[in-house]
């Protein structure tokens, strides 16, 4: 008998556990071992597929990933550099709102803002802008050779855009 991936096993009418910590409870009286298991291997039953931060550990930056209500990953962020887990997915840090994930998200906070396009106030990235619609921020990129102009609220060639992204100083 050997362990196999759950996708390759058909249990039929027999009980099929989805929680790895259940295996500790089956073999012997589960005392502190189960509690420690749950801290390091959170239960995914009832959770959507995706990446989440492990709230059971005080150490920030520890994540787990759920697939088919099973915990398939535990450890450091599985996301590539310049991305972070947000709503279960690895998302560009410029798409994650600062008000929801301080220290991680770099998107414009759209709470209380009118609908429209906004430059990121915290970082001088001229190639991107954020569109706020009903409090939700969406990241957009300017076409090659264009920069975001905060006066017109659209991407322009730099000779037609206000400083600091463009060369226009008067009338901005």
UniProtKB/TrEMBL annotation:
GO cellular component: extracellular region
Organism: Mytilus edulis
Annotated InterPro entries: Chitin-bd_dom, Chitin-bd_dom_sf
Domain Chitin-binding type-2: 107-164
Protein name: Chitin-binding type-2 domain-containing protein
Gene Ontology MF term list: chitin binding
